[in-house]
Design brief:
Elements: E1 21-27, H1 31-45, E2 52-59, H2 65-75, E3 79-84, H3 89-99, E4 105-108, H4 120-130, E5 134-141, H5 145-162, E6 174-177, H6 178-185, H7 198-204, E7 209-216, H8 231-250
Parallel strand pairs: 1-2, 1-4, 2-3, 5-7
Antiparallel strand pairs: 4-6, 5-6
Helix pairs in contact: 1-2, 5-8
The structure holds guanosine-5'-triphosphate (GTP) and magnesium ion.
Length: 262
C-alpha cells in the first residue's frame, strides 16, 4: 500500500494528459462507490461532445477506496487517481484534482453518486450556450426532510449575508474554467467547511453563475458523514460564514478570474 501522498504534478508516466474537461471526485471511505461511479462516468463520456477524464482523489480513506481507484486507473486511461495519506477534507481533494489536471474546464462532483454523472452534459451545455463564469447544479433531494430543512436554512443565511439569490449556493456540483476554481479555492485556507461557501465565494468575485436543476439521489452505498440534525456542523458553518464575510469585506477579491470576455 502507498504510504505517501501522490504528487499530482508528477504522475507515474511522466506526462499529464491534455483533455478538454476534468471531472474531480474526492473519495473518503467510498470503496463501494468507486466502481459504479467509474462505470457511469465512462458511459456518460460517450455522450459528451468533448474529451473528458475522471480524477478520483482518495482522501486518506480507511477502507479499500485507494485500492479500488488503482484498479480502475489500471483499466481505463480516462481515469486517474491520487492519494492523500491523511484526510485533507473535500477542499483538499478538489485542490489535488485541480493540480493534477491540465484541462481548461473542470467539474466537481461527489463520489457517492448523490450527484448524477449523467447530468454533466447538461451542465456543459449550459456552459457552452450561456458562457457564464460558473455553472452550479441545483440539487433536488427527495428524501430526508430534516436535512433539506437545514440545508435550505443555511442557503438562506448565506444568500442574505452575501446579498445573493442562488437557489443552492452550497452545491459542490459545479463546472467552470480552471482559473475560476483556482481563484475560489485560494480563499479556503483556515476554513474547515469552505466547501459550503463555493457559491458565495464565486459571488464575491462577481462571477456570473448559471443554475441547472438536477436530481439529488440517496447515497449509493456507505454511511452518511453527517447526522439527520447536523446542528454542530451548521453552527460551525455559521461562525465561518461571518468570518468569511468580514474577510471578504476587508480584502476585496479580484473580479471574475479567467472570465470569457469574448
Ligand atoms: N465528509 C467528507 N467527505 C469527503 C472528505 N473528503 C472527501 N470527501 C468526499 O466529498 C464528497 C461529499 O461528501 P459527503 O459526505 O457525501 O457530503 P454530504 O452529501 O453532504 O453527506 P452524506 O452523503 O450524507 O454523507 C463525497 O464524495 C466524499 O467521499 C472528508 O474529509 N469528509
Ligand atoms: Mg453525500
Amino acid at each position: 500500500m502507498q504510504t505517501r501522498d501522490s504528487d499530482p504534478r508528477a504522475p507515474n508516466d511522466g506526462a499529464i494528459p491534455q483533455r478538454d474537461l476534468t471531472i474531480i471526485a474526492p473519495c473518503f471511505n467510498e470503496d463501494m462507490n468507486v466502481h459504479p461511479l467509474v462505470a457511469r462516468m465512462l458511459a456518460m463520456f460517450e455522450t459528451l461532445p468533448i474529451d473528458a477524464e475522471l480524477i478520483l482523489v482518495d482522501d486518506g480513506s480507511r477502507d479499500a477506496t485507494w485500492q479500488k481507484i488503482q484498479e480502475e486507473q489500471a483499466k481505463h486511461d480516462r481515469v486517474r487517481g491520487f492519494h492523500h495519506e491523511k484526510n485533507k477534507g473535500i477542499v483538499g481533494g478538489w485542490r489535488t484534482g485541480l493540480a493534477g489536471s491540465r484541462s481548461p474546464l473542470v467539474c466537481l462532483i461527489d463520489s457517492d453518486l448523490q450527484n448524477r454523472p449523467e447530468d454533466i452534459p447538461r451542465l456543459y451545455d449550459a456552459y457552452e450556450s450561456e458562457r457564464p463564469d460558473l455553472v452550479q447544479a441545483v440539487r433536488h433531494p427527495k428524501v430526508n426532510k430534516n436535512r433539506i430543512a437545514f440545508s435550505k436554512g443555511l442557503n438562506f443565511l448565506l444568500n442574505a449575508t452575501f446579498g445573493m439569490h442562488l437557489r443552492d449556493n452550497k452545491s459542490g456540483f459545479i463546472l467552470c474554467k480552471r482559473e475560476v476554481l483556482d481563484a475560489i479555492l485560494a480563499d479556503a485556507d483556515g476554513y474547515r467547511y469552505f466547501q459550503s461557501f463555493i457559491g458565495v465565494a464565486a459571488g464575491v468575485r462577481q462571477c456570473r453563475i448559471v443554475e441547472v436543476d438536477t436530481d439529488f439521489d440517496a447515497r449509493h452505498a456507505g454511511e452518511s458523514f453527517l447526522s439527520n440534525f447536523p446542528i454542530q456542523v451548521s453552527l460551525r458553518i455559521c461562525k465561518e460564514l461571518l468570518q468569511y464575510r468580514v474577510d471578504t469585506l476587508r480584502n476585496r477579491r479580484e473580479p471574475r478570474p479567467g472570465a470569457d470576455r469574448g
